[in-house]
Specification:
Number of strands: 11
Largest sheet: 4 strands, antiparallel
Shape: globular
Strand content: 25-35%
Strand order of the largest sheet: 2-1-7-8
Helix content: 10-25%
Structural class: mainly beta
Length: 128
C-alpha cells in the first residue's frame, strides 16, 4: 500500500471540501435499504430511499491533514420503513460524492427506520 504525504492528503481533502459545496443546493445524504451499488457510478434505486438529510451551507465544519468533518445535518423525516444498509452523499450540485456502508463506514444508533420517524447525523468525518 502506498503512503501519501500530509500535504498531498490535505490537498485531496481541501479539493473534496470544495466539491461538497459546489452547486446551488445544499449537500445531502440519503439512506437506503437493500444492496449497495458496486460503486458510485451505478445509479441508486430511489424506491429504496428511506430518509434524506440536508447539510447546512457550507457543509464543511473542519479540515485536518487526516479528515474532513461535515456539520451536523438537519432532522429528516423517514419516508419508508426499512433497514438502512448504506448511504450516498451528494454535493450541492446533486453529484455523487461518496457511498457509505452502514455499520462499517457510518454508524447509526438504530438502523431500523420507521416511516414518520426522524433521523439526523451529529458528525461525519470523511478520510481520503
Amino acid at each position: 500500500m502506498s503512503k501519501t504525504s500530509v500535504n498531498s492528503r490535505l490537498a485531496m481533502i481541501q479539493a473534496f471540501a470544495e466539491f461538497m459545496d459546489n452547486g446551488s443546493q445544499s449537500a445531502t445524504v440519503i439512506f437506503y435499504e437493500g444492496v449497495q451499488p458496486a460503486d458510485t457510478s451505478v445509479a441508486e434505486d430511489s424506491n429504496n430511499a428511506l430518509v434524506t438529510l440536508v447539510f447546512p451551507e457550507p457543509c464543511v465544519k473542519e479540515i485536518t491533514p487526516t479528515y474532513i468533518e461535515l456539520h451536523p445535518t438537519d432532522t429528516g423525516s423517514v419516508i419508508k420503513t426499512g433497514t438502512a444498509t448504506w448511504a450516498r452523499i451528494f454535493n450541492g450540485a446533486g453529484e455523487v460524492a461518496a457511498d457509505l456502508t452502514v455499520g462499517a463506514d457510518i454508524s447509526l444508533a438504530n438502523t431500523n427506520l420507521v416511516v414518520g420517524g426522524t433521523l439526523f447525523i451529529q458528525s461525519i468525518k470523511l478520510r481520503p
